[in-house]
Amino acid sequence: MIGRPGNWFFVVPWIAFIPWYGMLITMLVCWAAQGHPIYWFMHTEQFPVYISDIGATNLRPLFISCAGWQGLGYVITVACEFFQRSGHWPGFLRSSSNKDYSKVEYHETILSKKYFMPPYYTRHERNLIFAAVILGGLGEVALLMCTIFSTALYHHVHLSMVGVFVVLMFFSVCCQTAQYFMMGRRYALFHPLSSENPDAIHALKWYQLAGYKYNKFIISASMKVVWLALAVVWAICFAAISDNSKSACFEWLLAFWFGVLFMIISWDFYMGGRYMYSKYFHQIEAIHGYYKYDSEISSSKESSFASTISEAKLEDSADADEININNQV
Questions:
Q1: Where are the transmembrane segments (predicted)?
Q2: pLDDT tens-digit profile of 94-110?
Q3: DSSP 9-30
């Protein structure tokens, strides 16, 4: 049975890619309704035609708008990953809080801070997702340029932008995959079902796993690896096959396959958002040596200490006022 979501961020990826699918289906339907034409700027017979060929016709406004929507949606989606795990958007400082957090157990501290997903364990994971946002944003700008500079009028520029888009998106997804793999390696060690010492992470090589290996982070990283491997194969086929008909088939396949990535991210958001309802989350007593958790606990203690000092000052002030009144009397 599917449990209730912890938040609604998992809907964001669907909002981002559904118009993209709508554009692809609309293009195919319109091309079929027109009788599968070979357009004036094409030099050979082929079936099907490339996405860019249809996008260079009267459907160009649809091509530009939906590609732009998908691009903006991808950047916002990856930025939502950063926000849910850090408490602030990429490039913005985290707002200070005046609340008094006196909890010392990490799960209570994290719950009191109201993170939408469990925070990062190290700065490396934070930096990876930030890099994914930047690389993805630049890649999506290149895709938008592909739609603006149509293959009919600016063929070489169009192809160059396609290459830039593919390369940058590859590295963006690589960063996301590495982030989840790194989080999964650490989560596997301090998971309640693990018999390993969390300090064993220092004895492991970067590719080794120990403890509770089949956790949600490792599963997500594995799905992204499979997605990325197939995407690379199909991208190579799209670029390397000289037969335009077969090459176009791989382009369409790759375009629809892109939507699967959004589905995986949506699953990440859904599972991550439910961490507060996990039967194992409250069994973890402490995580030592991880910057986000340690900083939260440290800030909790500092806040508690500051509150104690403030109360002491108020008491001293009240005592002094009482002494002055007695002296006057």
A1: 12-33, 128-153, 159-181, 225-242, 254-271
A2: 554 444 333 345 556 56
A3: GGGHHHHHHHHHHHHHHHHHHH
